[in-house]
Design a protein that fits this description.
- One of its GO terms (molecular function) is transmembrane transporter activity.
- It is found in: Cell inner membrane.
- The protein is mainly α.
- It has a domain of 225 residues.
- The chain starts with a helix and ends in a 6-residue tail after the last helix.
């Protein structure tokens, strides 16, 4: 049987399994194992299953072993642990409270503070869903209590939560860097300007929304003194310190991304105990949640590595590259087609699933056009970020809907999300049209 045909059938099988909600790790590993077995069995022309068993088992175990023993992969549990520890030490929410005090009298100030809090949370944790879940419990109920428009109170946090995908550190950037063999430190730095651009765009959406409809965000009847603002700003210094260690350390060449993660974990623990906001029990609980989340990510990554190796055996990637090259689409048309594929998949699949499913085909294709893989990584992560709030399966939207319960119907949250999606698309087009937005900081190192 032709390898290219087996590869295409495997892709269709994975998409079908994911559509019926089979866990992505089992879908990828299962299809890769069966596809490799069939491929090896037909190697001599006739179907000889006994000859296929040993090479299939060897391919599965060797690829999963190599991935798990990757040095770069060690930063995933470190950054995951950093997020859980910083949350329990009350470090991640201080940026929101500081912005809340400074923007108290600004129309829509609480919504803006929520977005800024999401940005600060993302600069430490690297997880969009964790950001939306945590900030949603804090911000959305407060805005609803103050009389904010239900769409604004929920959509602003759902959209702000997506910043965890772009603002470093980002788990998605780590996985992309491992599978494309690009510098994860450079990817982190490349996400800074696009992440800040997205954050400013969200703030602009809130400002225009409240300007056109003042009733959407009642201004609270409270006064804050300069002393209150100074005290709130000072309380956020641990979060600022951790962000400076990560970005400044990587940019200055002091740390690798893994070393920066380890230093920040130690710093967060010391700060938490010094401020008496972290206990031994909460530290152990953070370790337990880190182990569970890391095991899930590692399982998906190992299955993806097996699937990538299987796709390489089929030779389907060179065939697709050859077919696209023969069609001679312009670089602009190619990128628009890739963006459309990711946006469509983002409506139904989770970000990690989309990435590991598409990278085996996309990377050879963009390399054949001479595109910069760091810039392309930022484009991919931005597309995945958009998918987190795109109906019908916007994961961040469902997270916020679970937080607010019956107070805000799901369709109302999606109605508010449309305004933020418009800005997301504009930022995406800017990143695609002007690669310097992504490459300025990493290439200035």
């Amino acid at each position: 049987m032709d390898g290219g045909t087996i590869g295409l059938v495997a892709f269709a099988a994975v998409i079908g399994l994911l559509a019926i909600r089979v866990p992505i790790a089992f879908a990828l590993a299962g299809v890769a194992a069966m596809g490799s077995f069939v491929l090896f069995a037909f190697r001599t022309g006739d179907f000889t299953p006994l000859r296929a068993l040993r090479p299939t088992v060897s391919m599965i175990f060797s690829n999963s072993f190599d991935l798990i023993h990757s040095y770069d992969l060690s930063m995933i549990p470190l950054f995951v642990a950093l997020g859980h520890i910083a949350y329990r030490a009350d470090i991640t929410t201080k940026i929101y409270y500081a912005a809340r005090v400074w923007l108290a009298r600004v129309p829509g100030g609480v919504a803006m503070a929520s977005v800024m809090g999401c940005g600060g949370f993302s600069a430490i944790t690297g997880s969009s869903i964790a950001c939306a879940s945590t900030m949603g419990r804090i911000c959305s109920p407060e805005m609803l209590r103050m009389g904010y428009d239900k769409r604004l109170a929920t959509a602003s946090v759902a959209a702000g939560g997506t910043l965890g995908s772009l603002i470093p550190p980002s788990v998605l950037f780590i996985i992309y860097g491992i599978f494309t063999e690009t510098s994860i430190s450079s990817l982190f730095l490349a996400g800074i300007l696009p992440g800040l651009l997205s954050l400013l765009g969200f703030l602009l959406v809130i400002g225009i929304w409240v300007w056109r409809d003042p009733d959407a965000a009642p201004t609270p009847d409270e006064t804050t003194t300069l002393r209150d603002r100074a005290r709130a700003a000072w309380a956020a210094w641990p979060a600022v310190l951790l962000f400076v260690i990560i970005v400044g350390g990587i940019y200055g060449g002091i740390f690798t991304a893994t070393e920066a993660a380890a230093v920040c974990v130690v710093a967060a623990v010391l700060i938490g105990f010094a401020q008496r906001r972290l206990t031994l029990r909460s530290l152990l609980e953070a370790g337990r949640e880190t182990a569970i989340q890391t095991a899930s990510i590692f399982l998906i990554a190992a299955a993806a590595k097996i699937f990538v190796a299987f796709i390489a055996l089929t030779g389907v990637a060179p065939e697709i590259v050859g077919a696209v090259t023969a069609a001679q689409p312009s670089p602009v048309l190619l990128m628009l087609a890739i963006a459309l594929i990711y946006l469509l998949l983002g409506m139904f699949l989770d970000p990690i699933g989309i990435m590991v499913l598409t990278l085996p085909l996309m990377i050879p294709l963009v390399e054949s056009y001479g595109f910069d893989l760091i810039w392309f990584g930022v484009v991919v992560i931005k597309l995945l970020e958009i998918g987190l709030i795109t109906p019908p399966v916007g994961l961040n939207v469902f997270v916020i809907a679970n937080v607010v319960g019956r107070d805000v119907p799901l369709d109302r949250i999606f109605a508010g999300i449309l305004r933020f999606l418009t800005v997301d698309v504009l930022v995406l087009l800017a990143i695609m049209a002007f690669p310097v937005i992504s490459l300025l900081i990493p290439y200035s190192m």
